[in-house]
Specification:
Layout (H helix, E strand, L loop, with lengths): L3 E7 L12 H12 L3 E8 L2 E9 L7 H8 L8
Amino acid sequence: MQQWEYHFEEVSALTTLSDMRRPQTLVKFRDLGLKGWELVSLVADKGAVWATFKRPVEEAAPSAKQTMAAAAPGRNVPQ
């Protein structure tokens, strides 16, 4: 099953949709996108605007035991 990590960014400078065109906001969002983050929501709360981003969690490289078990199916690999 796909695992996700989340990043929350306060973007209080955004007060109207037209403010989305502000260069610093676009640069910040673009930089996060280049790092694999996908914008999934914008939420206004008590004068602040929060952006939520997500990206897939990269799976860790297999351990030596996992690699040995995959290379020798049916053999008992020590734990």
